Each structure stands twice: as structure tokens, then as C-alpha cells.
Amino acid sequence: xxxxxxxxxxxxxxxxxxxxxxxxxxxxxxxxxxxxxxxxxxxxxxxxxxxxxxxxxxxxxxxxxxxxxxxxxxxxxxxxxxxxxxxxxxxxxxxxxxxxxxxxxxxxxxxxxxxxxxxxxxxxxxxxxxxxxxxxxxxxxxxxxxxxxxxxxxxxxxxxxxxxxxxxxxxxxxxxxxxxxxxxxxxxxxxxxxxxxxxxxxxxxxxxxxxxxxxxxxxxxxxxxxxxxxxxxxxxxxxxxxxxxxxxxxxxxxxxxxxxxxxxxxxxxxxxxxxxxxxxxxxxxxxxxxxxxxxxxxxxxxxxxxxxxxxxxxxxxxxxxxxxxxxxxxxxxxxxxxxxxxxxxxxxxxxxxxxxxxxxxxxxxxxxxxxxxxxxxxxxxxxxxxxxxxxxxxxxxxxxxxxxxxxxxxxxxxxxxxxxxxxxxxxxxxxxxxxxxxxxxxxxxxxxxxxxxxxxxxxxxxxxxxxxxxxxxxxxxxxxxxxxxxxxxxxxxx
Length: 494
Description:
Layout: H1 3-22, E1 34-35, E2 38-39, H2 44-50, H3 53-64, E3 67-72, E4 75-80, H4 87-91, E5 97-98, H5 107-110, H6 120-132, H7 136-155, E6 160-164, H8 165-182, H9 184-189, H10 191-203, H11 207-211, H12 218-244, H13 251-257, H14 268-299, H15 301-319, H16 325-329, H17 332-344, E7 351-355, E8 359-362, E9 368-371, E10 376-379, H18 381-384, H19 425-442, E11 443-447, E12 468-473
Parallel strand pairs: 4-10
Antiparallel strand pairs: 1-2, 3-4, 5-7, 6-12, 7-10, 8-9, 11-12
């Protein structure tokens, strides 16, 4: 063992002793110190965590229950599994349960002076800027852009063929994001260059980045260069808009026009940082959720597709081929399909906060614990959504479950919940529903091979490749979209 390793080990021992001493009068959550059936103090839990958080939760929940703590490097992560024990997690104020400390690894990607590099008050004002970009009049404009991109994209498909759905929809999401978020100038003139740089930014966020965001590795070097190159590109675009007085209907313009309460505005680099943050928050999650929506519906096409097709037929009789903000709002069946896909396969399998105060939790079976200040707290939509106590038949793919009021409760956390519920939820649903409205109206589908498994190796969890489907363009005059939904069954593929 090297001297550095020995010092780290001794510090962990001291931390462990001090923590136990301070809280000896209170019952702290059980500490996972086991790995491979052996008790290994200090690092046993970390070894289990590094095998994957989903495996850890599946193994720990039956033994330890809804609350348990895992030591990982110099941190302690306390898991809060299920709606009862995660209530404080979602409802606490930022000064009690903070995002900033656990997501600071994003600062090299987003940039200085935005989101996780500012105090709580400044970040709240920046979130207001984002909220302004999602007001209904803006959303109405974005739908037109989304429809235009989707129509053009799927028009390039032949009358029949095979595609990898994840690859195809990821490409389309980038196009629509460029149009709605980054602006007309980028979409029409600099799309390829900016897309390549954003790709390098994306690949610069690896698991090591979470603990060591400035580690001197190649992925980080490419990330940092891409961030500088993007700053040069957007500085020219933003400055040109400022000087011309242009008022484009996109998120970029909202951030350019944004003003803090004291009248100050974002710098050009901070405008870019806000754009990157919004892009990263939505790009992968939307492409993954739109892919799962299609894969699950196609895998269960005899039971699910008739509902979706019949709904489109009904809407087309009423509105013709038009798709806009109000038309999308009428698509309940498609909304249920997206929501159920997100319930079963949320892209973010863990949500994190850092406890700024000690707080008490009580499990559903009456056990009480005190979670110490300084612990990183984690809750998992992916795990909670598959609990029998949260959803009936949780491993059954059943969009119709959301027709019942009993499923409209806070236990659904596909877009987070509480004070930090995702502000982009409406935008995401619009985007995914637009894509699948165009697809269902124009194509029939079959799944090639088995339904893919989730890829838990990624930072954002999507389906494993391949995600192959076969498509055939509809002849509306001959076939239409009319099919009667068959009886719902519990044999759905999940």
C-alpha cells in the first residue's frame, strides 16, 4: 500500500469513528460493509456500488429495507427507496437538501457562472429564465418547428425498410433541439460543426468525472477544447443578435433577453452555458424515452397500437393533418404510452442531493432513522417504479393504468418531483408526442428480435443496441388507421 493510499485509508477510519460517535445517541441508517458475502469495513459498500447502483439496490433492499448507507470513496450515500422515505428529499428547500454539491462535476461542461457554479438564489433566477422559455406562447411556436423537422426527417425513409430506432430518434432529437434551443443560425449554417463539438462535450462526461471532473484524461481534454470552440461560435451568433435587435422565437433568444432582478444580464458565455445545460438535460432523456415509447408499443402492438392508431384516426377526422399545441393536448392515449415507458425505463435511474441538515425518516414499516448532515442522498425512480407497493403489477407494460385516478399520485417520479421537478416536462412530452404522431400516421411497425434490455453502463440509461424495427409506409386510402383495440392482457412485454 502506498503512503497516499494509507493516508486516505486512515482518514476514512477517523471519519467513520467520528460519525459513529457524534450519532451514537441516534439511530443512523444501516451501513453496507459487505461485498461478495464478506464483511469489508469502509470499502465493502463501495465495491458493491461500483458494480452498479441497480444491482446494489436489488441486493440491499430485501436485507436492509428502504433506508441504507453506502460509503463510496470519501462520501457516504444514503439511499431513500420508495415514496414514504423520499418525501423530505423532494420537498426540502435548497438550504436543507442541495443539488449544487453533487452536480458540480458539470461545471467544466456547462461553464462558469451558471447552474451549479452559482449560489441558490442566482440559480433560482436562472431557472426562472428557463421557465420563461417554456411559457405557453413559446411552446406553441416550438411545436411548429418540431413538426417541420419530423416531417422532413421521416420523408427520407423509403416505403419500407429497417432502422435502429434509438439511432434514428437520437438524430431527430438533435435536429429539433438545434432548431428550438440553439437557434436558426446554428440549425441552418453551423449544425454539423456544433453537433460534433456537443458530441465531444457529451463524451467528456464519464463515471470518473462525477468524482474527479478535472482529472487529466483524454475525454476531459476533448471536452474542454470543445467548450472553448463552442464559446467562440456562439459569441459571434449572440453578439450579432444583440447588435441587430433580432427577436427569434427560440430558447437562445430568451436567454439573451433575460435580466436578473437587479437589471443585469447573462454574458455571452453564460448564455451558452445555459443552452448547454438545457440541451444536456433534455437531449438524451427525450431520445431514450421516445425510443422506449416506440419499442414497448411495437413489442405489444396487438394490444397497444390499436389504441394509438384509433386516437390518431379520431383526431385526423376532427383536425385533418394538423399537429399543433392544442391537437397534441388531445392525445391522451399517446400521453399514457409515453408516461408508461418513462415509468418502466426512466433515463435517470438515480436522483441526488446533499443533506445540509440532519433529518429524520420513518419507513413504511415504522423504522426510524436520522440521516446525518453531509450525506449524499439518493432516490431511484427506476427502482421505486417497480415496487409492488407503489404500482400494481409494476413489471407489466400497461399504459391504460394511467386512466385510473389511483395512479395519479406523487409516487410517479419519472420527471422528478417536488421543488426540483423537471421544468422541461411539457416540452419533452410535446416533442415525443409530435414524433410518434407523425410516425403512427404514416407507418406500420414490427420489432426485429427481442425487446432490448436497459443499458445500465451509461450515465443516462437507455436501451442496449440494437433497437431494430421494420417499418412499412401506410396506404391511407387502402388501409386507414382503423383497428379495434383488443382486450388488454397481462402478458405485455416489459
